Each structure stands twice: as C-alpha cells, then as structure tokens.
Amino acid sequence: MSTDYVLESRNLIKAFKGFTAVDDVNLKVTRGHIHALIGPNGAGKTTVFNLLTKFLSPTSGQILFNGKNITTMKPAAIARAGVVRSFQISAVFPQLTVRENVRVALQRKEGNSFHFWRPQRVLDRLNGRAQELLASVGLEDFADAHTVDLSYGHKRALEIATTLALEPELMLLDEPTQGMGHEDVGRVAELIKQVSVGRTILMVEHNLHVVAKLADRITVLQRGAILTEGDYRTVSRDPRVQEAYLGTAATAEVNAEEVVEA
Q1: How many C-beta atoms surround the C-beta of residue 172 within 10 A?
Q2: What pLDDT is stored for residue 105 in this prediction?
Q3: How many other β-carbons are positioned within 10 Å of the β-carbon of residue 256?
Q4: Residue 95, strand partner residues
Q5: Strands 60-65 and 5-16, how do they pair?
Q6: What are the extents of the domains in the chain?
Q7: What does the pLDDT read at residue 122?
C-alpha cells in the first residue's frame, strides 16, 4: 500500500444471514484529505464505519491503517493507534461541565480514564490543555457551563474537542451535521475545515452543501457497494448518482449545479 493512504479497505464484505450489507468495498483514504462517504438511506455507510472501527467484524476482507493490517484489532486498540470516531448521536456527559468533558478525554489519552477519585489538583493540571482545545472549537466561553444546557450544535463542537483530545491521526465523523439548523450546520462545517489541518477526516454526511464545500474526495455507496468515486463535481454529474441519491436525473442535475456553485 502507498504511504499516501492512511486507511484502506480491501474487498470488505459484511453479510447478515444471507443479506450482504457491505459488498466488496475497496476504500482508499488519502493522507491529509477530507473524504466523504455518501449514499441513500440503507446504502451501507454506517455499516462501513462500524467495520472500519471494529464495532462490527467483517465477514471477509482486510482493513489497513498506515499499511498495518488492523482487521482483527479491538475498537479500543484501534483508537489508541490513532483512529478515533465520533458518533451520530452526540456522545458527551450531559451533567459534567464542558471543561470536565474535555478533561475526561485527556485523562483517557494519558491512560487515566474516568479516575474521578484522583485529587483535584492532579486533574486541574489538565485544565490548560482543555482550555486550548475548547478555544480551537469556539467553546472557550462555555467552559464552566453544564453540557446539558448547550445547544445541539455546541454539543457537537464539544464532541469534536473531546475527539481532538485523543490526538487522532484519522477522525471518523458520523453524520456531524444531522439534526442541525442552518446556522449550526455552517458553524460545524467551518469547524471541521479548521480541525482538518494536519490530519485526515473520513465522514458520513447527508448534507450535500457540506460535502461540496469540504470534501476532497467522495465515495458514493449504493446497496452496500461503491457506485462511483471522485470530487464533488464529478460524482454529482454522474447519472447513476443523480438517480440513486439525488432523485430524478433532471432535477438532480440542477440541484447538483446549485450546490457546486454555492
């Protein structure tokens, strides 16, 4: 495998009692890129994510990270290797403060996860780095707020901060803008662009405006298989994508052009 690829899947298959959810997927994620995985509902996007992070085991095929076969590794080991995933539903502790959430992630990076009984002064030494991470996602003024009181968009920003605390080489973002209003979508999209500097991002995303503005490369799935790949302009003009993902070909072509020009 070329060192240009951070993550690669080879002939990846996942079958459930005769139903093939992922069908011979060969995915190559280039170092330093934002790579989007898109497709209609039921296309297999989240199943592919679950395979790549080993929340599911493949029926056959291989997964490689920096050229190393990680197919048999456990999820925690993959995270320690530098592949960290954020989930479709915001995964933060609602009753902790914003700073405490980031601090928990920093403890995990040090191998001291969830040691809440440690002396306060030991945990306080992490506050400086926690504040830096919050500043990087625009949450420095919310450090003492309880997470339950944050807007949905701010919760997703906090989740990205806790992901960054683990110093990932590859971030997997699962529907990062799902359920957001227009303002929050724009804020989170800009945040993803900012945090992509110096790292690689693979994301499942349904919002085509976000995909068009962020993704260097796009893989389109249909019925568990790769339909096509390329930059946004290329895939949005593919008649198969227009029919399978965007709707009827004529309407989709207009919509695709609007997104590209936006």
Answers
A1: 24
A2: 85
A3: 22
A4: none
A5: antiparallel
A6: 1-82+168-262, 91-167
A7: 59
Q: Residue 219's closest CA among 16, 36, 54?
A: 36
Distance set, CA 82 to CA 9, 131, 195, 244 (Å): 16, 22, 15, 34
Residue 101, pLDDT above cutoff 60: yes
Instruction: Give me 259's structure tokens.
Output: 């997104």
Q: How far apart are CA 179 and CA 122, in angstroms?
A: 38
Rg (CA), the chain: 19
pLDDT at 124 over 60: yes
**pLDDT at residue 116 above 60?**
no
Residue 172: closest CA among 107, 43, 78, 250? 78
Question: Quick one: what percent of the chain has pLDDT higher than 70?
Answer: 84
Q: Which CATH architecture has domain 1-82+168-262?
A: 3-Layer(aba) Sandwich (3.40)
Kindly state the greatest CA–CA separation across the chain.
64
Calculate the alpha carbon distances from 210 to 19, 164, 188 in Å: 31, 21, 9
CA distance 252 to 139: 37
The SS3 call for residue 172 is strand
Which residue has better confidence, 22 or 187? 22
